[in-house]
Amino acid sequence: MTQRFSFILWLMAGLAAFVGSAAAQAPAPVKVKSKIKPLVTTIYIVRHAEKDSTSDRADPTLSPLGQTRALALRQTLLRHHPAALFTTDTKRTRATLAPLAEALKLEPQTYDPKRGRDLADRILKEYAGKSVVIVGHSNTVLSLIDDFGATPPVEEIGEQDYEYLFTVRVAEGLMPTVDMRGYGPERRPGIKIGKATPMAPVPPVK
């Protein structure tokens, strides 16, 4: 009985030693970094093209130069395949989008320029991960950029400033970015296409 009990103890000790050795030799778990990228919503924001103030002072349409710029907007943004187009209820903004809308077979949606934050919330909810185009006015474009959480790269848009094209990118967990370039005819040399600003993580709240 004593020999059998000693054998059992010996067997248990050997088994414990084997398990301990196997555990020590087991490779440490490898941490796999997630390759899932956050959805980036891209918003292209422009002011309407040049207006013809002699046509209707209250609601002017585009001048010949403005019509040329509208065609340039189509050429510039068509390859990005916007999923939606937004315009205020004016002739000059609708005409600015008309060539692009026709090429994309999209019906522009009208928004209230006084409710830019509502528009931003809607776009980020309904068009997450896609691109959209918004046409506004000299006194609303910069506030639209702010409504998406980005910092406008210029302090104001002057009466004769029509060539700005702002690209705002928004992704969950990252700081929104905005890039600025010029497009269309009579582009000022100071406005050039630049490298996209990398999106940075949102800093923790202190």
Q: What profile does the largest beta sheet have?
A: 6 strands, mixed
Tell me the fraction of residues in β-strands, as a range: 15-25%
Low-confidence stretches: 192-196, 202-206
Rounded mean pLDDT score: 84
DSSP summary, beta strand count? 8
Element-by-element helix/strand order? HEEEHEHEHEHEE
Class inferred from helices and paired strands: alpha/beta
Count of helical segments? 5
Shape: globular
Distance between the termini: 71 Å
Strand order of the largest sheet: 5-4-6-1-7-8
The radius of gyration computed from the alpha-carbon positions, rounded to a whole number of angstroms, is 29 Å
Helix content: 25-40%
How would you describe this structure to a colleague?
It is a single chain. By secondary structure, the protein is α/β, with parallel strands linked by helices. The chain contains 5 helices and 8 strands, in the order αβββαβαβαβαββ. It has a 6-stranded mixed beta sheet, with helices on both faces. Strand 4 (84-87), helix 3 and strand 5 form a beta-alpha-beta unit. Helix 2 runs parallel beside helix 3. The longest helix has 24 residues, at 2-25. The radius of gyration is 29 Å and the shape is globular. Residues 192-196 and 202-206 have low confidence and may be disordered.
